Structure formats: structure tokens, C-alpha cells
Amino acid sequence: MRLIVAGSLLALVTGLTIATGSSRTQSAPVKNPTYAEHVAPLLNSRCVECHRPGEVGPFSLVGYENAKKRSSMIAAVTESRQMPPWKAVEGYGEFHDENRLSKEEIAMLDTWAKNGAPRGDAKKEPKAPEFSGEWSLGQPDKVISATQPFKLGAEGEDVYRNFVIDPGLTETKYVTAIDVKPGNAKIVHHVIAFLDPSDQGQKLAAKQNDGQEGYTSSGGGVGFIPRGALGGWAPGVRARNLPDGIGYKLSPGTKIIMQVHYHKSGKEESDLTRVGLYFADKPVEKECSIFWAANPIFRIPAGADNHRVRWDIPIPADLTAYWVMPHMHLLGKSMKAWIKKKDGTEVPLVHVDAWDFNWQLVYSLQKPLKVQAGSTLCVEAFYDNSKGNPNNPSNPPKAVTWGEETTDEMALLVLNYTRG
Ligand code: HEC
């Protein structure tokens, strides 16, 4: 079954990415790693962005005492590649801000934990990094937010809250970048800015009417297939401008749905997150659009633990892609996407082999990818709908098809592109 959902030219998203430098550093295994010389530099560059006071990580990993206390847990979550939360398989596509540990780094953390987390020479410990609270691309042309702080309960499931915001434009603008300032970094897990030209968000908010601004959705979606998006953010993400001459069209009247994925902290919290918009000051020749490469026709039988869904989408015109984002719900195990050229050669796009519903990242391509008309976008996804999947929302498992609810599934690869 071949299907393209809403793959037309619409206004769209900037580069989402996540944290810090590339990981190909150490080569020979370290025999007697110490905190001062080996562990601290690694935690400081890969972890403390999120694991420091007031940030989304559930505890601080700044300083020896904090790291020592969790040394075996650190070894375990890095070994399983749960942390850092970078899910794209190495060598399959190249992305900005890859935050992935090398085998040697993982082995070093393991040895350090097994040796009893030795400190080494405290005088050699690097200073904890400082993080700037400033907008990294300078003052935005427009800053949007909800009007009231959102109140989040202490415990329970994560919340996807959609704030419907009118940026109040009187003329069409082209957005070249967005940046996000979480109001309360302890609970803001990630943010995506969707576009809603036909006021669907407002209707959903009015229907839900739960006493707070916006509405809550399930499955990480916004309750409908949005026309486009302006990009997204997760901790560690660097705001990035689109290349000159390219922008996302934002027309007067189009609402922005600012979706905030909240992670509860154990205390009642509130948040007023701001999104900064940067507008093109030069003429824009090419509009950036979003391609929802979906296969809505599948059925995952109850109990199947490795169900494959595979779909192909013919590419009708030359285009250039800038980022990709795999999307599934709680049964997802893995997703792989590639371009098959007319001559049969394959170009890797992205491969997420240990899907984590909590970490739905946008992978920003290091080099924009030119795709010629006549190529095929190929996607393969696997799902675990067995009892053995601890995330399975249905017990006993039931047959699952496409839908918005967390108990439904999706087979969707989102990418952004320009024509030509
Ligand atoms: C982008 C933000 C981010 C980065 C970078 C990050 N973490 Fe985390 N970490 C989190 C969040 C959020 C959680 C809470 C669980 C979740 O959402 O997956 C977490 C949970 C953990 C846990 C607890 C896991 C559990 O099962 O309770 C450990 C241990 C941990 N991180 C260690 C690390 C280490 C070590 C690094 C660096 C190598 C790292 N993290 C990098 C955000 C981050």
C-alpha cells in the first residue's frame, strides 16, 4: 500500500537537533579511569546539560559526589544506550549535534564504576561548564508564549500540552529559525511548534475546556495532522538558521500550536515556555515544507512481538531535505528510512534501532540531502504488540491500527524539504 499524507507545499519547520559534540574521541581503552581525568570531562560535555540543578534530568551529575553516588546506574544506562538520549544508529546518516558515546567511553564508565568510582587527583578536575541563558541567535524578531503559566501535577504520566497562539502578524513572514526558552526546565522535555492555519487547535481546546490554556493530546500528536511546523527543541538543541533564501511561510491569521512535552518532577510545578521566532531579512526564494511520509494502512496483530510495516513513497519532483523525524507510539521498536535512487543505489536517511517514545527527536542532516525525481523514499518499522513489551498500553494486547490515541499506532516519517 502506497500513500502520501499531506505531502504538499505548506509552510514549515526549522532544524531540531540535540546536544553537544561528536563522540569519536578516545581510542585505546583506559585502564584505570578516574573521575578527575576521564569521567568528569565526559559527564560535563555529554550529560550535565540536562543533569544539573533545575534541568530536566532527574538528578544532578555535576561534581564528584553526585557522579559517584550514581556510578553503577551511569554505567548501566550508558551501556544500554538509554543515555544520552540520542537514538540514531551511528554511521547511518550524519547529523548535527550527535550526542552518542563511543564503545570506549562506555567501557571506561563501566570500568570506573566497577573499580569503586575512584576520584583521582581532585586538582585535575575540570570546572563545571557554564550555560548561557541568552538567546543564542540574538534577540528574536518575535517571542510567543501562552498568557498564563501552565500548572502541572506532581506525579503520573507525561503530558503533551498544546498551546494555541496567534503570533499577531499583519503581513506574511518567512521564519528562518526558532529557539525555545523553557519557563521551567525541570519539567520541559521537548517543544515542537506546529502550524495551524484553519483553527483546528482552538476548537480542540474549546472542546476539552479543562480550565487551563490549550489542550492535552495523546500519542505525541496534536489531535489532527498539522499543516506544517516551524521546528522543535529538546534540551541541548542548538537553534540553527536555515540556509539563506529558505524559510517557512507564516501567514497572518495562522496559529502556532506550541506543543510542550512535560515530564512530572514529583512536585507540583508551573511553566511558561517562550518560543523565539526569527524572520528572514533577505528575500526568500524557496519555501520550506513538511512531508508526512505515512503509511496509515496496517494492522499489528495482538501478541506479535516483531511485526514489520514497510512502505515506499515515490518522490515526484527534485527536492532537498534538511531533517527527518521518525514517529511511532508505544509499540514501536525500530524505524529505518532510506532513499532508493533510480539507479538502485541506496542513501541512508536515519535508523533508530531502540525506539523510545519519550525521546522523539528531530535529526538535522549535516549536509542537506538532494533527492531526484523518480527516487523512492523507503521506510521500514517494527512493532512489539506482545505482553512482553512493558510499554504496551493494552493488557491483554489487542490488534492495533493507525490512530491518534496512545493505544493506537503510527507508521510515520516526517521530513522537511524545499523544491529543487
Ligand atoms: C537531553 C537531556 C539529557 C541528557 C543529555 C542526558 N540525560 Fe540522563 N536523563 C534525562 C531525563 C529527562 C531522564 C529521565 C528519564 C527519561 O526521560 O528518559 C534521564 C535519566 C537518567 C538516568 C536515570 C535512568 C533511570 O532509569 O532512572 C541516568 C542514570 C542518566 N539519565 C544518566 C545520564 C548520563 C550518564 C548522561 C550522559 C552520558 C545523560 N544521562 C545525558 C535527560 C538527559
What key phrases describe this protein's structure?
420 residues, mainly beta, Jelly Rolls, 3 domains, five-stranded antiparallel beta sheet, binds heme C
Could you provide a short overview of the structure?
This protein folds into 3 domains: 35-124, no CATH class; 142-286, Jelly Rolls (Sandwich), CATH 2.60.120; 289-419, Jelly Rolls, CATH 2.60.120. Helices cover 11% and strands 31% of the residues.
Secondary-structure arrangement, i.e. CATH architecture of the largest domain:
Sandwich
Any idea what the shape is? Answer: globular
What's the domain count? 3
Rounded to an integer in angstroms, the radius of gyration calculated over CA atoms is 22 Å
N-to-C terminal Cα separation, in Å? 27 Å
The CATH homologous superfamily name of the largest domain equals Copper type II, ascorbate-dependent monooxygenase, N-terminal domain
Quickly give the structural class.
mainly beta
Low-confidence stretches: 1-26
Number of helices: 5
Order of helices and strands: HHHHEEEEEHEEEEEEEEEEEEEEE
Classified by CATH, the class of the largest domain is Mainly Beta
Counted beta strands: 20
Strand content: 25-35%
* Distinct ligand kinds: heme C
> How much helical structure, as a percent, in the residues?
10-25%
* Assembly state: single chain
Could you tell me the mean pLDDT? 90
Largest sheet: 5 strands, mixed
- Could you name the CATH topology of the largest domain? Jelly Rolls
Placed side by side, the strands forming the largest sheet appear as 1-11-4-8-12
